[in-house]
Amino acid sequence: MADTIAAISSAIGEAGIGIVRMSGNESLFIANKIFVGKKIERLTDANNRQLTYGHIVNPEDNSIVDEVLIVYMKSPHTYTREDIVEIDCHGGAIAVKKVLELLLKNGARLAEPGEFTKRAFLNGRLDLSQAEAVIDLIRAKTDKSYEASLSQLEGNLSLKIDDIQEILLEILAHIEVSIDFPEEDIEEVTYDELEDKAKVVLHMIDELISTADKGKILRDGLNTVILGKPNVGKSSLLNAILRENRAIVTDVPGTTRDIIEEYVNIEGIPLKIVDTAGIRDTEDLVEKIGVDRAKEVVEDADLIIAIFDASSELTKEDQQIIELVKEKKSIVLLNKTDLPNVYDSEYLSNILNGKEVINTSISKGEGIDILEKTIVDMFYGGRVKVKGEVLVTNVRHKNQLEKARKNIIDAIDGLNSCIPLDCIEVDIKNCWTNIGEISGDTVSEDILDKIFSEFCIGK
């Protein structure tokens, strides 16, 4: 990695400042070509980590490009553990773009997505799980998801992985001694003792896997679909939860013809709420496509909020919805309870195999607080705690843990059957390899490229 990389690290758009970042051995040399200070001639004369005021100039004609603050940070005490220069320009697309172009003309190359963080990983500044936490931190949608990402960035998951790997290495060491030196007078490790250690590993892996569902929700949001026949109150519910008029609400059935997606924060839980077209038979081609898409998104939903109209008889459209949600994780709302009711919540609950039904009058704001509390109770037992917890928030991490779990179970089964230790060794090594892919100890270059390609350029 002898080359020096550069990129815009702030979001493009109007802002007070824009940041251009450069990392690599030539950072200071390149910066000196285009920076002229007010009190010092070149950045070389500035103190390490001290902001310096001056101008970026085009060395071809000495024209001023922007008025800036610039800082040089000497390796290894930097984000990438390489020399870094950061330039604070005026905000806006033009200034940062012109500064970046000058850096590229004078010896830097444009950074690939996530390359700064990839260098931090390759140079030992972060392990892979911490590096992945960086992008989660940037994308966090609630305080709770931010806390979970920050915990991973600080290395709390890495410590758990290290503990598991340490026990696996102990098991491997005992096995290899028994295999390599059978003639030596060494106390033989019994199969029972090895099995006890393997069961400890299994328990630790299971504990991490058990947090994955909660972690996924905090990272990606709870995929929540609002379902109901036309004019039942779906769009009104979306607006009530968002506390804004996001969806069009009219008395005309079929107003919502497509999928509307919005994120909302309920006590730290990010909900990706999907408002769907009303379920009904229709000759309108556009509306029909919307209805078909509504049925499709139900299959991928973590939670369905099904709404029924207490002021009108159950229709065949309602029956379709009942069949869709009977076996799904769902919350049922009986809406328009402020109007004369045709049926009550007990009747609806019986049809839905005993599911709890919440009475609402969405137009009057009644029952929304009960709905939100029910969501928290359903997924977190009424309390969303993140601080102090180690959560698996990444699908890749969960997949590796599940592979490792299978490996350690195979090893335990082999120990129970007293198969040769060299066969057990294969399962333990596979377990160690799969666990190591979480922290990056055993990860392949292809996986690294895939992970960092999801980052934004400049991070």
Structure characterization notes:
- The chain has about 450 residues and is α/β, with parallel strands linked by helices.
- The longest helix has 25 residues.
- The relative contact order is 0.12.
- About 5% of the residues have low confidence.
Features:
459 residues; alpha/beta; seven-stranded mixed sheet; 16 helices; 13 strands
Provide a compact summary of the structure:
The chain has 459 residues and is of the alpha/beta class. The protein has helices spanning 27-34, 93-105, 115-122, 128-139, 143-153, 156-180, 191-209, 212-220, 234-242, 285-299, 316-325, 345-351, 368-380, 395-416, 421-439, 445-453; strands at residues 5-8, 17-23, 35-37, 52-58, 63-73, 84-90, 109-110, 222-227, 260-266, 269-275, 303-309, 330-335, 357-359. The longest helix is centred in the middle third of the chain and has 25 residues, at 156-180.
* Shape verdict: flat
- Series of secondary-structure elements, N-terminal to C-terminal: EEHEEEEHEHHHHHHEHEEHEHEHEHHHH
Counting H and I runs of at least 4 residues, what is the number of helices? Answer: 16
Mean pLDDT: 85
Major pleated sheet: 7 strands, mixed
End-to-end Cα distance: 17 Å
> What fraction of the residues are assigned to beta strands by DSSP?
15-25%
Q: Low-confidence parts lasting 5 or more residues at pLDDT below 50?
A: 247-258, 279-287
How do the strands line up in the largest sheet?
Answer: 3-4-5-6-2-1-7
Structural class: alpha/beta
Topology at a glance:
Blueprint: E1 5-8, E2 17-23, H1 27-34, E3 35-37, E4 52-58, E5 63-73, E6 84-90, H2 93-105, E7 109-110, H3 115-122, H4 128-139, H5 143-153, H6 156-180, H7 191-209, H8 212-220, E8 222-227, H9 234-242, E9 260-266, E10 269-275, H10 285-299, E11 303-309, H11 316-325, E12 330-335, H12 345-351, E13 357-359, H13 368-380, H14 395-416, H15 421-439, H16 445-453
Parallel strand pairs: 1-7, 8-10, 8-11, 11-12, 12-13
Antiparallel strand pairs: 1-2, 2-6, 3-4, 4-5, 5-6, 9-10
Helix pairs in contact: 4-5, 6-7, 6-15, 7-14, 14-15
